[in-house]
Write a structure and sequence with these properties.
This is Cupin domain-containing protein. This protein has 100 residues and is an all-alpha fold. It starts with 45 loop residues before the first helix and ends in a 21-residue tail after the last helix. The C terminus is likely disordered.
């Protein structure tokens, strides 16, 4: 993963995202996407457990738009050691790189 690179992952693909690398995901298909996240070392998944929506069988999860990133959610980002960087803005820390 080299910063400005974008790529298409298909069913069965595995994508490794190193720690401290800025990244995002976008489903450009017409079908619902299913993802499996594995965090190592563990910890950052707490952001989604505590800040995410309660799953409901057969119900599509809403996208996380800008309105989702309120003070509570940003506090959870801090709590779990995750940095939220708004689209179009680069982090001041040089160790972050943007992935498409």
């Amino acid at each position: 993963m080299d910063g400005e690179r974008t790529f298409t992952a298909v069913t069965g693909d595995i994508v490794h995202i190193p720690r401290m690398v800025r990244h995002r995901f976008k489903n450009v298909g017409v079908h619902t996407t299913r993802l499996l996240f594995i965090y190592t070392p563990a910890g950052a998944e707490g952001l989604f457990v505590e800040g995410g929506d309660e799953p409901k069988p057969g119900v599509q999860v809403d996208n996380w738009g800008p309105e989702r990133f309120d003070d509570r959610m940003l506090g959870l980002f801090h709590k779990y050691g995750v940095e939220a960087i708004r689209q179009g803005r680069r982090s001041d820390r040089s160790r972050h790189r943007r992935l498409g």
